[in-house]
Amino acid sequence: MDKALHSDSVSPLYRQLMQRIRADIASGVYPVHSRIPSEAELGQSYQVSRVTVRKALAELTLEGLLRRMQGKGTYVCAPRLKSSLKDVTSFHEACLMMGCAPGTRVISAGPVHVEADTREALALPESEAIEIVRLRLADEAPVMIETNCFPPKYVALLHEDLTGSLYHLLSQQGIEAASGVHEISLCYATAQQAKLLEVEPGAALLQLNQVIFDQHGAPLHTSHQVIRGDRFTFRI
Prior knowledge:
Chorismate lyase
């Protein structure tokens, strides 16, 4: 099969190459986590210069489709999960919508004494709340560490299976997550976070703080999420 690109096309060669590589990834020629051919090999296969190949790979890396590892080559990334901040969507639902298998490892769950900001956000008369800390996974790969704090009246959650969607458990009691306030920032992985998320200590992570309200406008829970940005993106 002739792989040569069309130099007389209105589309620049590097964009044509990007489209070819995207198609090869989508069709399984280059599976997720596999190494793609070197710049020299791609240049020879598609009869283009290494400058063209380098630009195409750089653009695909910026898109999050590829990951370049110094001295090891270029690898296909797992698809990023996407979630809209306009709607309150559980991680479980986001995974299913993207065709990924959701997974959860419960790190801790129980009553805790919370700081003043959490107490104020949840309108608590005292400082005790129910805290659930979980590692969320997509296709068995770690994506985020999630810490949710609920008012004490939701203590019954501690007797449920916490490896699925908490929103599903709440909906069975007639409680729906309806709206939220969100704050996104950048943070850097601590040693413990790095171990759980399988990144290097000090790696840049997304940090999402939320206050979620139920269908009656009452505070339902706060959420603190530390997220691998190479595996999860937000639509605003």
